[in-house]
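Objective 1.3, modelling of assemblies. Example input:
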Amino acid sequence: MKVKTTNFDFMGVKVPAMIISAVIILIGLLFIVFQGGLNYNIEFNGGYLMQAAFKDKVDITEIRSAFSTGEFPDIEIQEFSDQNSEKYGTEVVLKVESTQQDIKLLESKISEILNTKFGKESYEVRQSTSIGPKVGGELKSSTLQAIIWTVLLILIYITIKFQFKFAVGAVIALAHDMMITVGLLSILGYFFGFEISLSVIAALLTILGYSLNDTIVVYDRIRENMTKYKGMEFEKLINTSINETLIRTLLTGACTIIVVIILIIFGGEVIRQLTITLLIGIITGTFSSVYIASPIVLYWENLMHRKKHLYRA
Amino acid sequence: MKEHNNMIRWIIFAVLFSWAIYALIPTYRTYFSSEKTAVDKIRLKSDLSKAIEKVERGENLSGLETALIKNYGDNEEYLSLADEELEKLSNFEKQNLKSMALGLDLQGGMHLVLEIDYDQLLKNKALKKDKQLDDLLAAAKLRSGTDKEKYFNEIKSVFLEKNVPLNTYFGKPGESDTKILASLDSSARKGIATTLEVLRNRIDQFGIAEPSIMPRGKHRIVVELPGVKDEERATNLVNQAAFLEFKLVAENDILQQKINDIDTALKNEDGQENSNAVTTDTLKTDSLNNEPAVSEIKTETDSTQAEDATKLFSDTSKDTTAASQTEDELAKTSPFKSYLIGGRSGEILVKEKNRLKVVAILKNDNVRNILGNYEFVWKNKPDVYNNEEYSEIMLVEKKAVLDGTSIVEASANLASGSSATGGWEVPFELNRDGGRIFSEVTGKNVGRRLAIILDNKLYMAPNIQVRIPNGRGVITLGGGTAEEARDMAIVLKAGALEAPLEIMEKRIIGPSLGSDSIDSSVKASIIGSIIVVLFMLILYKVSGIFAVIALFLNTLFTLASLAYFKATLTLPGIAGIVLSIGMAVDANIIIFERIKEELEQKNTVLSAINAGYDRAFVTIFDSNLTTFIAGITLYQFGTGPVKGFALTLMIGLIWNMYTAVVMTRLLSDLFTKKNAKTISI
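Predicted structure (tokens):
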């Protein structure tokens, strides 16, 4: 397959591209503020979750009515999206957020209500999770630590391997990726009840790594071209570099995205939060290598140059 | 020279490949072949014997047990396998043949995060318990929040503020606060070690295949029980303090004295005048007679039972003047006693509905003072008489004559013969010192009752009829189930938890969900791999084949590493492998695109290949390393399944460096003629 290197003027449209990003981030932020923060699940807020598979078909409203008069009127009951209709009649997921210290008590109360209404034998507990209030708070802080450490280490590494201005571009690109992903997840949270869980955090950290991966490939080419085309204007240099790596970027991006889509479709509900987050992040990450990281490097470079000129003048 | 290098590389590859196959054999045997490992045989034999026992006892069998007996019941092989032999075999297997473990989310099981309840621990260790202690500890807990480290410091400050020296409650008299704090701290830390030990013993006896009991940080313990079937039992087993004590029951006159004293004290407290209905000697009070329950309890005919309830408390069973007293008036004249009802064998019962009130009374500081060296304990289960629940309460000496640490052996049996209810019992055996003490105590106290108390709950209080010299006894459960008896035997044998545990997190994955997850993830992996393979073949043709072989080897080596280091494969872990496949492709794409670029510049095939690999290596290394960094922090801060994801991702990346760069190069060299003009790329 003979390929001619393309010659798009990527940097020419950098401003509109960055504006689009900013708009998406803003919308996401609005949704976050509107919902009063991120839509954390019980792993962060404490509470109880039970996935119950009823042998016969059961109407969800019946289940809801069993709880409406008791201690847990706010209980969330949803149908499990991977309905296994041969084995079970109805499979539901019950969620209760609670800061109750004694999680055994919480669990037994909810089981009691179900047992009274439907009988213990009528359903199978496919999984249950009880999280005490302490654990959740710690999770939030350790997640923040994880993200900070990762970004810090990466910043150091890129400064060593490339130059500081590249590190700045990379970090801003990462921040951009995080904000867009979390923003979009909040929008999903508003419309589809998507919750931030531990696996979402895992996906976010992976995205950090992947986005970097991508950005570095572009940087690597820029670095190589900086020595190869010594006199070239920086903006043109960046354009050339991006064009040269375009095929690789698109191919890898396509390959990884297809794989993640397969995981979303066939991987099952249990890892769905992980895989959806990965998808959003990988798309954003690929985009940010071109339209955030590189322009920042350009701006920084120009800024530095202008300063030098000012000095001389 | 290059030939020489390549030869070495092929040899290295051969070594690695054989290692990978060797590492994966146990996994294959465990999950895919029908040949059973020794571990499986042990489990099978145990399940089989239990099922056979059930048959002999005439109990109902579950479907699984019926199938077991049908398939293996006559199989001499299983029944005749010596336990020691099997043990040896299974240990050997465990050490040397490492199979990849499946995470809880794939095989089902329970995950518990426990934290030492320091609050309770200190209360247990306290020399005396009163409201002041409760308040001080509560204040310290409030201030320190979730930070266990701060807790001990806060205790120091709180006690200091209230001007209460620590040696009032802990340590020896006269010891300084700092010394006591230090020793408390160290015993708390030792607590984790001993807790782990006790838990391991208990779980061992419970019979879980490969349990994991690990400390986390300084104050927490993570328990993972894969494949556990009865989660409730398992949780209780882990959670139960299992503190066993033998205490002498207070004699009757003391009991009556205390009850009266309490009544007096309570009335004085309320500022009520002394009622003349209460006498200080025998409990002639007729209030108890008016409780209809007494006569109804009496109607339970059991001629072998000793005391008539009313005799215990009063001689005037026909006193009618008292009949006019209402419950409220009774409460005024005898605030404590009015809640107490005599049972047919002389026990004191309290209606369940009154229980909280009685508990409140007993917490009263004055009452605690009156009780002095005695305390009331509640029976572990309420009894039902005439559709109402009653709980027994008994006055015992505070100081235990013996505790559970002296128990060396305990088992569970069906009570033989004498008991009408045919309940379960737990015979136990004491160690030499314990046996000696037991003999002394029983010798000196014939005729008195000895209460057997587990976790501050009264199980039984048999009469000491004769000196027991051989250090053996029996705890009758009076009904109960086989599981209850067995679990009690387990915790008695394994020992008490000195440090009570609080459950912070509990996750249960049912095995059906686990196997569903395996199914879906395998499906996703296969489909994902096929697509990637097609992708590479279409794009890069023959070179694509090399890349595909490299991908396959990458996955093989990753799985082999997991198996060899006995890491755990979780559901996100499988997602990590699939993601690695997608990302591994990147390395090859970089290389191949580079080679194409070089070819376009009219370079020779060989130099193009060289340039491609050389130049690309730097890029691949940088990009893989950054993803690896993300993996490291994920591994550090993640738990369980997330750790599994990080692990497979990192291992995949490392192997990727080898397979995508070295292996494809080797293959390409193998199939490219030296003076080739073109390559299929």
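The mean pLDDT of chain A is 83.
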